[in-house]
Model the fold of this input.
Amino acid sequence: MPIQRLRTETRYSEINIHNGTVYLAGQLADDHGGDIVQQTRETLASIDALLAEAGSDKSRILSVTIYLKDMARDYAGLNQVWDAWVAEGHAPARACVEAKMYRPEVLVEMTVVAAQ
Done:
């Protein structure tokens, strides 16, 4: 079965599809100047758009890994937005870890695996 790669850059592809499974590269907010609520909303909107491009949607997400810059400060704000966004009855497997981000103003990044 071939691998389909969409939005390919030099170092990565935004979307990889193989055998009915969609893999998204780490997604970030476009505007890194906002708080955790704004950055989480933008990140989830990006995930929605990429899943749609891959022929999937948030109800088909299998797992998400969430990277937070500051778990103590931002976990509640992240979950406020996440809980309103996640498809009812379709909560994916999820891990949330604190991580040093590639830029100081980035507060959250998410990687996603979904069924197509």
The two ends are 14 Å apart (CA to CA). Residues 28 and 109 are 5 Å apart (CA to CA).
